[in-house]
Specification:
With about 350 residues, the chain is an alpha/beta fold. Helix content is about 40%, strand content about 15%. The protein contains twelve helices and 15 strands. Strands 3-2-1-4-5-7-12 form a seven-stranded parallel beta sheet, sandwiched between helices. It has a two-stranded parallel ribbon with strand order 6-15. Strands 8-11 form a two-stranded parallel ribbon. Helix 1 crosses helix 6 (about 210-220) and helix 3 (about 80-100) runs parallel beside helix 4.
């Protein structure tokens, strides 16, 4: 099999190409990235491509599967830029797959595509996918779900799989996730001494190890399956679970007690994650991943607790990875992040 992976140099992409390279059925992998990494792995070749503007047909043509992971989480302060890459770029990938007659498309959707849902029971893949309209991330994920709803009947020969994972964490993603969500002012060492965890309504979310998600992508690419698959592991992360991980205690707080300082920090350009994303997180449903286990034969290796602990270790140590998105230190360091605008550029 020849597999093309967009966004192959990021948190998910590096895990996916490693998983693919170890699979005997996969003969070659083409990784697409905006910035070509020096890192590689067996069977992998790189091509520099911005999905928003590149001629994609020569890149995806001849593939057996396209795995579409490419996504801009920043600049959150410029939703037009993220829309152009995430939505319009995603559509360009989908239509290129159809034009070049690639047999299968595996698309990285997200728990963020789901409409607000219950926290006390798990929902299946039939839950509505309208997102939370105020946050650009969830809005864009939901829009591509609607586009695929129309794409699939128009192109029945393309096997379409939509993966909807929980939050994806690994040690090598720590520096990237600090830059994307916490910003340059966040001291990694603080995670060693967290005295309290706020217990607010809606703080009940799911996370998992990125490598476990990668194994599900491999299974979806190499098996004759279609449709949506939730990806999540136990335990669900709430305040008591997080407090146990951090050795802290819980304190009950209203939502505004967190949102008001977050909004202030956002407006002061102190953090890159906007408060609308916080609102969306508190409304995400808890997902049932039974279909992935039953139909893909997916068996995750890590618990959610282990994934969080690995990320926290990475934050404490400033750990990164060998590709431009995962690099431990960007040009100019944290002062460079401040000078170029927190949450203002890709």
């Amino acid at each position: 099999m020849r597999i093309v992976v967009t966004g192959a140099s990021g948190n998910v992409g590096t895990s996916v190409v490693r998983a693919l390279s170890s699979e005997p059925a996969v003969g070659s992998i083409l990784g697409l990235a905006r910035r070509k990494p020096s890192w590689s792995c067996p069977k992998l070749e790189w091509a520099e491509a911005d999905i928003g503007v590149a001629d994609l047909d020569p890149l995806v043509g001849g593939a057996d599967v396209v795995i579409h992971l490419a996504w801009l989480l920043q600049p959150a302060r410029d939703p037009v830029t993220t829309w152009r890459t995430n939505v319009l770029g995603g559509i360009r990938v989908f239509e290129s797959v159809a034009r070049t007659q690639v047999p299968a498309l595996v698309y990285a959707s997200s728990v963020g595509a789901y409409s607000p849902g219950p926290k006390d029971r798990a929902v299946t893949e039939s839950w509505p996918t309208h997102g939370w309209p105020a946050a650009s991330y969830t809005r864009e994920k939901a829009y591509l779900e609607r586009y695929l709803d129309a794409f699939e009947p128009r192109h029945p020969s393309v096997r379409v799989v939509r993966m909807r994972p929980a939050f994806l964490l690994k040690r090598e993603s720590a520096a990237e996730q600090r830059r994307l969500f916490l910003g340059p002012l966040f001291p990694g060492g603080i995670t060693r001494h967290v005295p309290v965890v706020p217990d607010v309504d809606g703080l009940r979310i799911q996370a998992m190890h990125t490598d476990d998600a990668a194994s599900a992508y491999l299974l979806a690419a190499t098996q004759d399956v279609r449709g949506a698959f939730n990806l999540a592991v136990e335990p669900v992360l709430d305040a008591p679970v997080l407090a146990r991980i951090l050795g802290a205690r819980t304190v009950r707080l209203p939502r505004w007690a967190l949102r008001v300082p977050l909004a202030a920090a956002w407006h002061l350009h102190a953090v890159p994650a906007d408060p609308d994303l916080f609102d969306a997180m508190l409304r995400l449903p808890v997902m049932d991943a039974g279909r992935a286990r039953a139909e893909l034969g997916w068996v995750p290796r890590f618990t959610a607790t282990e994934a969080v602990e690995e990320l926290l270790d990475g934050l404490r140590d400033g750990t990164g990875g060998p590709t431009p998105p995962l690099t431990p230190r960007v040009e100019g360091g944290r002062l460079g992040e401040l000078r170029t605008g927190v949450g203002s550029r890709p």
